[in-house]
DNA sequence: ATCTATTGCTTGCAATATCAAGCAAAGCTA
DNA sequence: TAGCTTTGCTTGATATTGCAAGCAATAGAT
């Protein structure tokens, strides 16, 4: 019943980067990132979300939506996601949990060559 | 180098409502609203901005931009404003200060009949 | 003139965002 | 085995959001 914490963690691991690497590139402290990924943060500021969105190459609006901020075009159907829109369209609507799982699998695949 | 405080105050006064009336209709405390209008608040949360945007009938994105949050379509030209877009287009680009002034004049006009 | 309600404002407080510093476990390297 | 580094995490501190309560000034009503 936590939240988007796992999502951020899955995102990072799918990229195979460390907390400190994210810190270096975004300016967000590894301490905070850790709390973020373990669900100890309620609503990270838009500023922080923006940095993460850029680093992870996901939609800023989507992150805003995920943490519960109101978004301009508040449709019931989320607009864009980490797993490419194309994939999403082919897969049809997927749930949050499914997305996390896909990301974890992505990580597995990417790590298979090393 | 104050901020958007005056803008919110001008907005409210142009509508001729009290702090407590805004509180009643938005759920944002009059205490906080007062601080907001006197520049004692740095970055009100998107949640709060959204409530105010709805009440004042201005663009939520525009408010986000005004308080310094990153916005999806970060163009150098602000998208929409309190004074109708149409008016804006006719007037051409207007500055923040000009906008506040226009709102104050709006207030004057509206209050002339009472 | 006195009481009452309204209005804007200040203040103290709880919750939260965010970080710097440090810690334990795990991995290298010699 | 002993050291050095990396990694994720916890903790203490600081800043800020946002509110409840209360205060001073003003306006109305009687």
Topology, please?
2 copies of one chain form a homodimer.
Chain A: H1 5-15, H2 19-26, H3 30-37, H4 46-56, H5 60-66, H6 85-91, H7 96-111
Helix pairs in contact in A: 1-7, 2-3
Chain A binds a DNA duplex (30 and 30 nucleotides) through residues 18-20, 28-35, 37-38, 41-45, 48.
Helix content of chain A: 55-70%
- What is the overall pLDDT average of chain A? 78
Spatial extent as radius of gyration of chain A: 14 Å
Number of strands of chain A: 0
Query: What share of residues are in beta strands of chain A?
Result: under 5%
The dominant shape of chain A is globular
Largest interface: A-B, 11 and 11 residues
* Uncertain spans of chain A: 74-81, 84-94
Q: Name the structural class of chain A.
A: mainly alpha
Helix count of chain A, per DSSP? 7
| Distance linking N and C termini of chain A | 34 Å
Secondary-structure element order of chain A, N to C: HHHHHHH
Largest sheet of chain A: none
Please give the oligomerization state of what you see.
Answer: homodimer
Task: Describe the protein.
2 copies of one chain form a homodimer. Chain A is mainly alpha-helical and 114 residues long. Chain A has 7 helices and no strands. The longest helix of chain A is centred in the C-terminal third of the chain and has 16 residues. The termini of chain A are far apart. At the A-B interface, helix 4 and helix 5 of A face helix 4 and helix 5 of B.
Which short descriptors sum up this protein?
7 helices, about 60% helix, mainly alpha, DNA-binding
């Amino acid at each position: 019943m936590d939240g988007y914490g796992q999502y951020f963690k899955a995102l990072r691991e799918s990229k195979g980067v460390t907390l400190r690497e994210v810190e270096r590139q975004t300016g967000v402290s590894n301490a905070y990132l850790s709390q973020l990924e373990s669900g100890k943060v309620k609503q990270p500021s838009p500023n922080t979300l923006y940095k993460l969105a850029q680093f992870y190459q996901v939609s800023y609006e989507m992150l805003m939506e995920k943490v519960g901020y109101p978004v301009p075009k508040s449709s019931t159907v989320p607009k864009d996601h980490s797993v490419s829109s194309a994939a999403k369209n082919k897969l049809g609507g997927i749930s949050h949990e499914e997305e996390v799982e896909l990301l974890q699998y992505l990580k597995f695949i990417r790590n298979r060559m090393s």
